[in-house]
Every structure is written in structure tokens, then in C-alpha cells.
Amino acid sequence: MWQEMIESFSIRWKVYVNVYIRNERVFKVCFSNGPVNEFIQSKVSKILKKDMEKYFEGKKVDFVRYDVILNKSNFVKSVLNYVRKIPYGNVVTYGFIAKILNTSPRAVGRALSLNPVPIVIPCHRVVSSNGLGGFSQGVWIKRELLKLELNLN
DNA sequence: GACGACTTGTTAT
DNA sequence: ATAACAAGTCGTC
């Protein structure tokens, strides 16, 4: 009973945004931010849309201010929360994160593949030591995102 | 350097 | 229980 109340409260509300690359719908981003309130909701989705547009124009956008609810295991949460802090334009390896969190690179990749909100949690900034690594929506998207952030053609 | 086998922590079934 | 992975390391050639 108590647990049920906590859960229904923590679901709050969600904002969905479709992300397009080359006129192709690539994935859906889901956000949440604060308690149920339609006024705030519409306002936040507008801000989010603006942020996304800015991001795809190649401008630096800080998504840390969005509060993402993660319905995941503690391990996945800790990986995702670490990845959130990687600044725009920076790149780290799976092994690097594994060392910090005292786990294995493979486990890090596994956790990253469960990322519900690409871009907002910038999992594309995590690469393998010898190459790009993977990306659940396709590695070419990861390449595009990094090109965008690193200002390569 | 390129390739392969072995290690690895976590999730999914 | 065990298979499946968005990886890394060390060995051989």
C-alpha cells in the first residue's frame, strides 16, 4: 500500500519528443520534470523542443537541468548518472567509466544500452578504446552526434 | 598491427 | 541456471 503510493507519485508525468536526423525519425525522447501540472508540462516541452533544435544546430546545450526519472536497477542508474556529467564535446571510454565505478567495461556498455533518453543522457560520448563502440539506434547516429559536437564537417 | 581466445559484470529468459 | 552483450587484455603471428 505504502509502496504503491510512492510509485504512483514518482511516475509523475512524461514528455515525449521525437528526434529526427536526415528527415528520418530516429528515436523518441521521454522526459519528466516535477509533479503533475499541465501548465508546467506544456512549458517544459516547449523549452525542451527549443533545446533540441539548438542542439541539432550544433550549439552547446546543457541537458543536466532536465530531471529524468530512471526506472532501472541501481547499477544502471549509477552508470547513467555518471554519463550525464560528461560535458558537451567530451568523450570517454567504457573502460574509463568501469574503473571509476569499479566494474567491467562490458557491464558499462550493457547499462548504456538501457538508456531511455539518448542525447539528454549523452551515451554517445562513451566510446570503446579502439573505435566507436555501439549505439542502440545504430552506430551511424552516434557518429553523427559526435561529428555535431566536435564540429567535424 | 591484425586476429583470436579468455575474462568480465550485469541483464534478460 | 545460463545465454547475451554498446569491452578489454594478452598472446601469437
Per-chain topology:
Blueprint: H1 2-11, E1 15-21, E2 24-31, H2 38-56, H3 74-84, E3 92-93, H4 94-100, H5 105-112, E4 126-127, H6 139-150
Parallel strand pairs: 3-4
Antiparallel strand pairs: 1-2
Helix pairs in contact: 3-5, 4-5
This protein binds a DNA duplex (13 and 13 nucleotides) through residues 73, 75-76, 93-95, 98, 103-114, 123, 126-130, 132-136, 139, 142.
Approximate strand percentage = 5-15%
Succession of helices and strands:
HEEHHEHHEH
Helical segment tally? Answer: 6
Please list the strands of the largest sheet in the order they lie side by side: 1-2
Q: In which range does the helix fraction lie?
A: 40-55%
Shape: globular
- Determine the mean pLDDT: 78
Question: By helix and strand content, what is the structural category?
Answer: alpha+beta
**How many extended strands?**
4
The biggest sheet amounts to:
2 strands, antiparallel
Distance between the termini: 56 Å
Please mark out the parts with pLDDT under 50 across 5 or more consecutive residues, or reply none: 1-12
Rounded Rg: 16 Å
